[in-house]
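Sharing a chain and its predicted structure for anyone who wants a worked example. Both blocks are below, sequence first, tokens second.
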Amino acid sequence: MNQTHIHLLITHLPIFGSILGGLVLLHGIWTKSNQTAIAAYNLFIISAIGAGIAYLTGEAAEETVENIQGVAKTAIDAHEDFAMVSLVSLIVLGVAALIGIVLTLKKSPLTRSVAIVTLLIALVSFGLIARTGYLGGQIRHTELNAGTANGAMPANGEKEKD
């Protein structure tokens, strides 16, 4: 297994971790369960670490695909640029989660407020990382850009005629 494999495997972690963590945190806020909130915070921290690993392995993944016929350099650049924004967002989410854990364990009066702010950060982070994943998919999944109305290629494999 090389860095390209790791990149492809780990990229899904921050996408699913941020939205799953957000749902868990929402449940924790709703039920006023500190244990549930801490579980959500742990998901956010794991997601932030996953985003860091994905970003660090991205260069190797780029080197693997950049010379493959049909791979557009513009698609790689768009994915790479947006990945940095997503990484920053997930780092902020991870730091907010660490603060949330500390305040929850100390039984601070700010616990609920920090949880709500962290939930909002998680929603923004999910949107950004999902967009990054979509842009990454554009690099090799050219079927996503098919010229048909529903995105599917005709059964015979030929392009539809206008």
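Comments welcome. Helices lie at 3-10, 12-31, 34-65, 73-105, 111-140.
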